[in-house]
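User: Hi! I'm working on a homework problem where we have to compare a predicted structure to a textbook description. Could you give me the structure for the chain below?
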Amino acid sequence: MEVPNSYSLALEVFEADPQHWGGAYVDDDGLLAVAVAHQSLDAAQETLQAAGITKGVKLVKVKQSLTQLDAQQNQVAEVVAAHANQVSTFGPNYKTQSIDVVMNSESDSLAGELRATATADGPVVNVSVESSNPTPAAT
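Assistant: Happy to help. Predicted structure tokens:
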């Protein structure tokens, strides 16, 4: 299977130069979609090929780099630390180029505080509330 191997190799490339990459995810076609930021697609392709990534990859041009996503996540983490009992999970979403936050319960003030961490040119902060009454599985 190409995706796990390609992803492992891509991680090494991302760590070496995070300002030019926006992460990766498996797309709907089962390809590894590599987010390319602040460089040409040709330059990105050359870098990936030099790293041994030659098959099963699709390049996607994005505005946010891993450096920007990490900085935004750190700002969100400061807010989450003060409200840890209200947040289930948070982290980057490489497909949407955002920071996703899932809260345990509704809190307009916390949601507003989380969204306010976003800068005009930085990643969006998406806030949702996990369902407290999941739909039972069909039998």
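For your comparison, note the following. Strands lie at 21-26, 32-37, 57-62, 87-93, 98-103, 124-129. Residues 2-62 form a domain with the GMP Synthetase; Chain A, domain 3 fold (CATH 3.30.300.50). Good luck with the assignment!
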